Amino acid sequence: MLTLYSYPELFGVADNNGYGLKVFAWLRLAGVPFVHEHLFDASQAPRAQLPYVTDDGVAIGDSEAILAHVRRAYGVTLDDGLTEAQRDTALMVLRLLDDLYWVMSYSRWKDEAFWPQFAAALKSQHPRLTDADLQAAQAFNAQRYHYQGIGRFAPAQAYERGLADLAVLARLVPQEGFVFGPTPTATDAAIYGFLANIHFYPIETPLKAFVSGQGNLVRHLCDIHARIQSGPAAG
């Protein structure tokens, strides 16, 4: 049985990290049965990063490597009908989401305007987390942000970057249907993975204000959210 290991849920979203939620949504949309296990500690994961999967005793890390493995092993055809131009667009969306990730994460762990609300929410839903756990995670993330670069930005500058990413997605996602037509693809799962972790959170960051103000993005998120609430996952 395929097992997905990812960070815990929060605010009704199955994973509070965009990459793990992307994989979760994609597996549900693809109809692939899997067990979902939540972890806080990624130290034993491939590259010490979540998400990862195990399949027949083999551990596979990196969200795109996971999707590639499952496509081959389980015959997933969600993206089979895409044109070369659409595949190019899909890759550019993935890279844009990589950029958005840092701003979204910054809004939780770095920006003192929102960090207390995020920390309180984590402790409320996951009581085993201590203040020491959260302070250690905050310090770890601050180091990551510094070396990546986003941590050297003031909040207004960081959000300007994230809002530019979101504006592109708002122009890409249609009013009806999905990015490449009437059925969702991996691109829709990826967009959901990151934007659900903004829109469904009751923490009023500038990112949330933008997403929640775009009817097409909200409609897309709610559609995917409804489709993946029940599916072939065990555990």
Written description of the protein model:
This protein is α/β, with parallel strands linked by helices and 235 residues long. The chain has 2 domains: 3-78, Glutaredoxin; 84-228, Glutathione S-transferase Yfyf (Class Pi), Chain A, domain 2 (Up-down Bundle). The chain contains 9 helices and 5 strands. The chain has a 5-stranded mixed β-sheet, with helices on one face. β1, α1 (18-30) and β2 (34-38) form a beta-alpha-beta unit. α1 runs parallel beside α2. The N and C termini lie close together (12 Å). The model has no long low-confidence stretch (mean pLDDT 95).
Tally of discrete structural domains = 2
Mean pLDDT level: 95
Largest sheet: 5 strands, mixed
Principal-axis shape equals globular
The CATH class of the largest domain turns out to be Mainly Alpha
Summarize this structure briefly.
The chain has 235 residues and is of the alpha/beta class. It is 57% helix and 8% strand. A five-stranded mixed β-sheet has the order 4-3-1-2-5, covered by helices on one side.
Features:
Glutaredoxin, single chain, 5 strands, Glutathione S-transferase Yfyf (Class Pi), Chain A, domain 2, alpha/beta, 235 residues, 5-stranded mixed β-sheet, 2 domains
Topology:
Elements: E1 3-6, H1 18-30, E2 34-38, E3 52-55, E4 58-61, H2 63-74, H3 84-109, H4 115-125, H5 131-148, H6 155-172, H7 186-199, H8 206-212, H9 215-228, E5 233-234
